[in-house]
């Protein structure tokens, strides 16, 4: 995980993964694989988009976010790619995807959680909505977290 956003004097409110969990550096030498800041293709068969799981911080009005990767089927990935710079992309219905980022601070794996990818305005990463289950990440996205939880996450991520 790396820090995506830092507000001095306060713990960071964003952390992100640089690639899907399935990405291997050797894939960058393949013609059928590519990793950019926002999209990824592996072996011409696996497709991913980067987005944000946003979690409200109830006692501050801030938003905490995880920068994550979600797999999409080929048709939805192609549609996302084709509309990347098109303002009309906001009209797209959400796409189904599987979370492909492991967030190690949760007691249960976050890999393969069901999600919905909501396309936003050009220049904004998609909003990733975790399917409402009893997984702690889904609960936090639904109910929010406290500033104390943000500090705890920062301590765990920044100090190991």
Outline the fold blueprint.
Elements: E1 2-5, E2 14-16, E3 34-35, E4 39-42, E5 46-56, E6 63-72, H1 74-82, E7 95-99, E8 114-118, E9 127-130, H2 136-143, H3 147-159
Parallel strand pairs: 2-6
Antiparallel strand pairs: 1-2, 3-4, 4-5, 5-6, 6-7, 7-8, 8-9
Question: What does this molecule look like?
Answer:
By secondary structure, this protein is of the alpha+beta class. The chain has one domain. The protein is 19% helix and 30% strand. It has three helices and nine strands. Strands 1, 2, 3, 4, 5, 6, 7, 8 and 9 form a nine-stranded mixed β-sheet that branches. β5 and β6 form a beta hairpin. It is globular. It starts with a strand and ends with a helix. 27% of the residues are buried.
- The fraction of residues in strands falls at 25-35%
Q: Write the element-wise H/E pattern from the N-terminal end onward.
A: EEEEEEHEEEHH
The major sheet is characterized as: 9 strands, mixed
Which oligomeric form is depicted?
single chain
- How many beta-strand elements? 9
Number of domains: 1
Helix vs. strand class: alpha+beta
**Tally of separate helices:** 3
Instruction: Output mean pLDDT.
Output: 93
Ends apart, CA distance between termini: 11 Å
Radius of gyration: 16 Å
Q: Top keywords for this entry?
A:
160 residues; alpha+beta; 3 helices; 9 strands; 19% helix; globular
What's a concise summary of this model?
This protein is of the alpha+beta class and 160 residues long. The chain has 3 helices and 9 strands.
């Amino acid at each position: 995980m790396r820090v995506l956003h830092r507000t001095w004097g306060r713990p960071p409110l964003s952390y992100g993964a640089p690639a899907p969990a399935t990405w291997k550096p050797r894939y960058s030498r393949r013609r059928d694989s590519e990793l950019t800041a926002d999209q990824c293709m592996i072996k011409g068969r696996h497709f991913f988009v980067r987005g944000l799981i946003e979690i409200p911080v109830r006692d501050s009005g801030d938003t905490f976010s995880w920068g994550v990767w979600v797999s999409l089927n080929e048709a939805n990935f192609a549609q996302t790619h084709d509309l990347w710079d098109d303002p009309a992309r906001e009209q797209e219905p959400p796409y189904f995807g599987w979370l492909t980022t492991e967030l190690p601070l949760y007691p249960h794996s976050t890999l393969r959680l069901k999600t919905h990818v909501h396309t936003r305005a050009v220049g904004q990463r998609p909003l990733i909505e975790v399917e409402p289950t009893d997984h702690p990440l889904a609960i936090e996205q639904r109910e929010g977290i406290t500033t104390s939880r943000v500090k705890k996450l920062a301590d765990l991520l920044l100090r190991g």
